[in-house]
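Researcher: Next sequence.
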Amino acid sequence: MNTSSPTPVFGFFTPLPGAAAILAAAGFQLPEQPAPVPEAKNQPEVETPAIQPLPQIQQRIVVALTRQPPLNERQVATLEVYWDAYHETNAALPISEIAARLVKRGIVDPARAEDFVKGALRSFGKRLNGFANESVALLLGVDRFGDGVADSVPLVVLLDIRKGKNGEACHRLTKDGAAAVSVALGLPKPNANAAKGEPSMEDLDETVSLGMSRRAALMILRVAKTRGISVDEAIIQMTAAAGAG
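Model: Next structure:
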């Protein structure tokens, strides 16, 4: 028998009860056995929120406010001022008051503030143009030929238009408009300084609404469920993975 090149031998072994004690009694040193690994306990699944669709009219407003091109910083600030006013007193405010609040925030130049607010309102109206809803008001009048005309005013699904004490146009967000603006801009609750024209304080831990498609919401919920984490943590991790954290 050639012992220089031993033939590999494979064996199948069955543990014998008491074998360890017999070997120890015979003087054989047994290697220490690793401690048994505890069975992994089933971690409770993280509850993920159900998807709550917005009412149709609010969906249309959100889509109008978030489509390309995006709202610029001053237009966003204008909506924030209306949104703060809605939660303060729900009073309709004249353009001059909105302009003054924007000036206090340092958003616009005082000399052009009112013109900017008027331009922002026209921009919102264009975004809502073609809004198919029975509640859209009609502006009655006559054309240059003296014929009666009725032009739709899509802005009224977002802003309620009233006349002030001096006959000036005043605006306030509608109920659907306020809800849609909150979702479109991800706004927290306004703070006590909102009445002074100061911007809302941002509490990063406060729960807010954020407008997104059902497809995007399902993807985020899927990531959260797969990783066993909250929706907040899923978004934070996805953002970090994209290099935008």
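Model: Residues 56-196 form one domain. The radius of gyration is 33 Å.
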